[in-house]
Amino acid sequence: MAALACVVLAAGQGIRMKSRLPKPLHELCGRPMIDHVLDTLAELKPDRTVVVLGREADEVRQRLDEGIEVVEQPEQLGTGHAARCAAEALAGFEGDLLLTCADIPLLTVETLRGLIDHHRAEGAAATILTTEPEDATGYGRIVRGDAGAVTAIVEHRDADEQTRGIREINTSVYCFDARALLPALKRIEPANVQGEYYLTDAIAALVGQGKPVCALVAPDADEVMGINTRVQLAEAERIARDRVRQRLMLEGVTLLDPPSTLIDAGVTIGCDTVVHPGAQLTGETSVGEDCVIGAGATLRGATLGDGVLVRDSCVISESSVGSGSVVGPFTYVREGSEIGDGCKLGSSAEVNRSRVGSGTKMQHFSYLGDAEVGASCNIGAGAVTCNYDGLVKHKTIIEDGAFIGSNVTLIAPVRIGAGAYVAAGSVIAKDVPAGALGVSRDRQKNLEGWVERWRQRRSRGGGRPRPPHR
């Protein structure tokens, strides 16, 4: 089998995006467009992959994995010039060269394999991936001879009425015989108002030399759509997310209302998990089997074990939740947190940069920040850690089996020993030894008859009686 090199043209300025961000880095389904293209090409297992960069080359280069070769196009002189930069870098390469663009992110590996197989079966010097959209206005038309071979690509502005009636268009995706491409590129001239070198002129050069040029029609026009504006990016986003949702449902995930559920391309979800309407799963989120993700929940880069229940309107960001745990509703697990197996986080609770041991229960309206909590602890409703002194974040350590009562304030740095109790309403600023009771309260005083005196004074137009100073 012939060797394969892949070339991605990513040097265009993307003026119509109207953005300071290079066009290849605009995100589609949670990942930059160029990542989608390179991931698809990687499935072909090419011998070499070359990316042609131009504007903001360093910013795009930082996104590329090791093994990706980079060629810079110092001046943006058209697609033919960009292809020539890549072909010169591949000088001496003998095999097939697959060329695509960073702004065609919806291509599937099946379509590209089909293009390569057709190219090889026909023994072509070049094979063009084409499609037949409902409206071909503005696109270059594919003109074929009687035997079906390509004789020309005619740009819309140069086409007569008969040629404009052709529905088959060029998608700017090609497979070349690498040995034929570079000589053809050297023949083209910038014979246009823009002074640019067009890659389509290389096709014309090959046809003029009598080299066989073929075309293969992509069955799905959506797959080969190019992204030049944010309107087109939004349309591609819709298509990409539909693909993700369909794939997950076919893999055994239940989406109760697929159109309202936002799931990024990098998300994985286990079998028999149920996702309720309005949920958002983004980044590299991983959800285990038999989980339930409630309505309006947001998972950003989260890792969930099996059998996790995330109730409505929770947010879990860059954190992990162990198997069998229950979170929420309205609970926020912030970045850098780790929730163990079989835990329960009550409603409107918050965990930030903290580890919570397996079997621990954290009740509603409580807060853990910069805390290490052991296994089988109880964090009462309204209990909080005071981790910030205005300058430095301090750590709270709660050892296994400790019981923290409701409305407790733990002023870090502080350690609560294994099996210790902290009485409800206490403010704890010193360590509590293992097995001890920590309590910090003023002695309660009951003022007999105070309510009646207050009512009488109000009936006479007076104010509220003041209790004696304690």
Q: Taking Cα atoms only, what radius of gyration do you get, to the nearest Å? A: 32 Å
CATH class of the largest domain: Alpha Beta
Largest sheet: 11 strands, parallel
Give helix % range. Answer: 10-25%
State the low-pLDDT regions, or none.
none
Question: Strand-residue fraction?
Answer: 25-35%
Treating each run of at least 4 consecutive H or I residues as one helix, how many helices?
A: 9
Shape: elongated
**Number of DSSP E strands:** 41
Order of strands, main sheet, comes to 12-15-18-21-24-27-30-33-36-39-41
N- to C-terminal distance: 92 Å
CATH topology of the largest domain: Spore Coat Polysaccharide Biosynthesis Protein SpsA, Chain A
The CATH superfamily of the largest domain is known as Spore Coat Polysaccharide Biosynthesis Protein SpsA, Chain A
Q: How many domain units?
A: 2
Examine the secondary-structure arrangement and name the CATH architecture of the largest domain. Answer: Alpha-Beta Complex
Would you tell me the structural class of the helices and strands?
alpha/beta
Overall pLDDT level: 93
